[in-house]
Amino acid sequence: MDVNAAVAAAAAIAGVLTGVIAMLAFRWSERDQKRPTRTSLHTDPVLPPGVDTVLSVLRSSAVVLDEADAVVKASSAAYALGLVRGGKLAVEPMLQMARDTRRDGEIRQVELDLPRRGTGRGEALAVSARVAPLGSRLVLLLVEDLTEARRIEAVRRDFVANVSHELKTPVGALSLLSEAVMDASDDPEAVQRFAGRMQIEATRLTNLVQELIDLSRVQNDDPLEDAEPVRVDELVAEAVDRCRHQAGTKQITMAAGGTADLHVWGNRGQLAAALGNLVENAVNYSPARTRVGIAARRVSAPGGDMIELAVTDQGIGISDKDKDRIFERFYRVDPARSRATGGTGLGLAIVKHVAASHGGEVTVWSAEGQGSTFTLRLPEAGLARDRAGQHPDPDLDDEAGGSTESSPYEPLPAPEVLP
Q1: Strand 228-231 relative to strand 291-299: parallel, antiparallel, unpaired?
Q2: How many CA atoms lie within 13 A of 194 on its CB side?
Q3: How far apart are CA 90 and CA 86, in angstroms?
Q4: What pLDDT shows up at residue 294?
Q5: Phi, psi (5° rounding) for residue 373?
C-alpha cells in the first residue's frame, strides 16, 4: 500500500509540474508575438485612425509612403494608372515631391504628362499630383487623371475655332460683295451679278447656322421623347425628294429599293435628316450621269434584327487617311468641291450622332475612284428603346469617328445595289 501511494503521489506531482510548464510556455509565446520586431516597425506602419476609410472613398488615386519611400497603402486606381509597381512609387517626379514634402512639410502640387501603359503609340496620360504630409512619418500622394477633361476641352476649343472660321468666310464675302454693289450702282449688269453672289453666300451662311442648330439638337435632345414607329420607305422617299433637283441638274439617276415594309423606332425628323445628309453627300460627290442607290434590308445581329439603309454612289471615293476623319466636325474630303456645293462639313457628324442616339451606328466602305457606300444601321422597331439607352455617347469616342471606319460587308457598285 505504501508503495502504491508513493507512486500515485509522484504521478500527481509530475502532472502539476507539466501543467505549470505548459502555461508558462504559452504565456511567453503570446508575449513574444505581441512584441514589435525591427521588421514590423519598418514594413507595417499604422495609418492614422480614419485615413484608410477616407482613402477608400476618394475618386483620386491615393498612395501613402513611409519614411523609406515604401508604399504603405495604395488604391486600385493607383495600380491601374501604373503609379505603383513592386511596392514602390514608379514615377520619379512624384517620388521626389514626396521626399521634399517629408523634409520640409510643405504641400506640393504639379501637373505631369506620363507615358500611358499598354499602348505602342506613345500617348501621354495627363495627371495632377498633390503631395501632403500625413502625420510625422507618412506622406500622402493624391493623383487626378485629367486626360479625358483635356481631350474634351481640346474638342470644344477646336469646335469654336472651326465655327468661327466657317462663319467668317461667308460673312466676309457678303461684306465685300455689298461694297462691290455700292461701287457698281451705275452698272445694272454688275449689280445683278454681285447680288447673285450675295444670295449664294447668304444661303451658305443660313445652311451653316441651321446645321449647327441641328447638331446641337441631336447632341442634347433625347430622340425617344418624341419617338414613334417610322416607315423606312417614307424616309427613303423623303431623302430622294430632297435631292431630286440637285440630281436632275447633274443628270444623276436615283434609284431606291430593297426590302419593303420595314420600320424603325425613333425621332422621325432626326432620322430623315440623317438619311437625307447621306443621300445629299452622294449626289454632291458624284460625277454627272452616274447613279446613286438607296437600299434597305433587315439583317440579323446578336442583340436582335437591325435595319440597314445603304447609300451607294459612283463618286470620287475616299482615301484611307480621309476615312479615319470623315465623321469629324467640319472635315471635308474635298474642300474645293464643298465650297462649290455649299457643304459645311457637319452633315456626317450629324449622321453619327443620330445613329448613336438611336442605338445604331454608321459605317463606310469606299475606294478611290470606285465610289462609296455609307450604311446607316438602326435597331428594328421594338428593339430601339432598349438599345438606344445602352449606346455610348459619341462625344466620348474619338472625334475621328470611333467605330465608323468600315462596313461589315462588301457593298456592290451603285448600279447593282438595287434590283
Answers
A1: unpaired
A2: 18
A3: 9
A4: 93
A5: -130, 115
Could you tell me the CA-to-CA distances from 142 to 1, 65, 122, 129, 131 in Å, in that order? 83, 11, 24, 6, 6
Nearest alpha-carbon partner for 413 in 317, 329, 299: 317
d(CA 360, CA 301): 12
- Three-state secondary structure call for residue 363: strand
Q: Answer yes or no: pTM beyond 0.70.
A: no
Q: How many CB atoms lie within 10 A of CB 46?
A: 11
What distance in Å separates the CA atoms of residue 381 and residue 228, rounded to the nearest whole number? 9
Q: Which residues pair with 294 in a beta bridge?
A: 256, 311
Please tell me the distance from the alpha carbon of residue 140 to that of residue 102, in angstroms, as a whole number: 10
Residue 361, C-alpha cell as written in the block: 451606328
pLDDT at 292: 93
221, amino acid identity: D
Helices and strands counted in the chain (H then E): 15, 14
Intervals of the chain under pLDDT 50? 1, 29, 32-44, 119-121, 384-419
Would residue 230 be called left, alpha or beta, if left means φ above 0 and alpha means ψ between -120 and 50 degrees? beta
For residue 201, CA distances in Å to 145, 159, 166, 170 come to: 45, 22, 12, 5
Beta bridge partners of 145: 127
Q: Which residue has 514594413 as its cell numbers? A: 43
- Spatial neighbors of 230 by CB under 8 A, at least 6 apart, are 263, 264, 265, 266, 268, 271, 381
Rounded distance, CA 288 to CA 279, Å? Answer: 15
Dist. CA 230–CA 265, nearest whole Å:
6
Query: How many Cα atoms within 13 Å fall on the side-chain side of residue 132?
Result: 6
Decide if 356 contacts 391 (C-beta within 8 A).
yes
Q: Is 182 buried (19+), middle (13-18) or exposed (0-12) by CB count in 10 A?
A: exposed
Rounded CA separation 72/308 (Å): 56
